[in-house]
Write a structure and sequence with these properties.
348 residues; mainly alpha; three-stranded mixed β-sheet
Length: 348
């Protein structure tokens, strides 16, 4: 095949051959494959390379996923079965649990298959689908937290009008608007990959098909992709965080006008679960991004930090809402008692 090529192509193949000889077999195959295709058939995920005791970390992620499924599945089941929880507030909790469950399912099983079973090649179309669902559900978590902040804002600042403002149709429309907006931004981000030519490398230097590491492999103009990356970061991370911050500023002003310190503390306690959710979602995310930009982290440390940022909030969210919320705990007890009564009746 090399003899039939032009002199320039022969030089390219010889150069690629010398580079590939120094690398591992998977990376070598990726580079050689990429020399033949503008749009590659597959990418190669090169995350967690030469990480000591890596299998223990994959077992830990497997445990995180199982507990995430159990916790969020239980919370979704309780909210669905208990009619007393069919309220606007728990519509938001249901949506967050659903986004957590789907986001973890989109990321962790594929991550374990890729690295635990050493199946590091991923088809081009599957890579883009992987990217879409992981980023989509992470964005949905972010905007659900904004809607939950709005619920707390109305409850504290306009308590007498709460039930007339925060209704099921209103919350349903807000959630639907969030889903539609996120899809309308995510679809163009993914479609813009169709205009890229990948002629440098097929090796993605991270643990999943993340947006920036993939588009940076292209050899033609990626300025639009870069702009969309900033748009997505602003729309899904920065703007929601700012809106939540402004909401709590208004809540703080409203609470400062309450004369009784006891009443102030009681009102603040209704926000505590939401504040914890906000902290465990945004603080690791911002911390991870700042650490990546300002420090020279070892690649595996950076990827472990990033993978925990994506997975731990989904694990902790249902624990916070099942252990800190009396309504959910009492609803679980009622369901268990109902089940016991039903079993006793059947035996009799």
């Amino acid at each position: 095949m090399v003899k039939q090529c032009s002199p320039q192509m022969r030089v390219l193949f010889l150069h690629l051959g010398k580079q590939a000889f120094r690398m591992g077999p998977e990376v070598r195959a990726a580079i050689i494959l990429n020399a033949s295709f503008v749009r590659p058939a597959k990418f190669y995920l090169n995350g967690f390379t030469n990480m000591p005791h890596e299998k223990y970390y994959y077992v830990f992620l497997c445990f995180v996923y199982i507990m995430t499924v159990l916790g969020n599945g239980l919370l979704l089941t309780v909210i669905y079965l208990v009619e007393a929880l069919h309220t606007p507030k728990y519509m938001l909790v249901f949506n967050l649990a659903f986004a957590d469950l789907c986001g973890s399912t989109a990321l962790i099983p594929k991550l374990l298959e890729t690295f635990l079973f050493n199946k590091r090649y991923i088809v081009y179309e599957a890579c883009l689908s992987y990217m879409f669902f992981v980023l989509f559900f992470a964005s949905m978590q972010s905007w659900t937290l904004v809607t939950m902040a709005y619920d707390r804002f109305i409850a504290i600042c306009f308590p007498l009008r709460y039930h007339s403002i925060v209704t099921k149709p209103a919350i349903g429309l807000m959630l639907l608007f969030s889903w539609v907006c996120i899809v309308s931004i995510m679809v163009p981000i993914i479609k813009l990959f169709d205009r890229l030519s990948f002629c440098r490398s097929l090796v993605i230097q991270t643990f999943f098909c993340d947006h920036s590491p993939v588009y940076r492999l292209a050899c033609n103009d990626t300025s639009i992709n870069n702009i969309m990356a900033y748009v997505a970061f602003l729309a899904f991370i920065c703007i929601p965080f700012v809106l939540i911050g402004l909401t709590y500023m208004c809540i703080s002003i409203a609470l400062s006008r309450i004369a009784s310190g006891q009443e102030r503390l009681k009102a603040f306690k209704t926000c505590s679960s939401h504040l914890i959710l906000v902290a465990i979602f945004y603080l690791p995310l911002f911390g991870s991004n700042i650490a990546t930009v300002t420090t020279n982290l070892q690649p595996n440390v950076r990827m472990i930090n990033s993978s925990l940022t994506h997975t731990i909030p989904a694990l902790l969210n249902p624990i916070i809402y099942s252990l800190k919320t009396e309504e959910v705990l009492s609803s679980m007890k009622k369901l268990l008692n109902r089940k016991r009564i039903t079993n006793t009746t059947k035996k009799l």
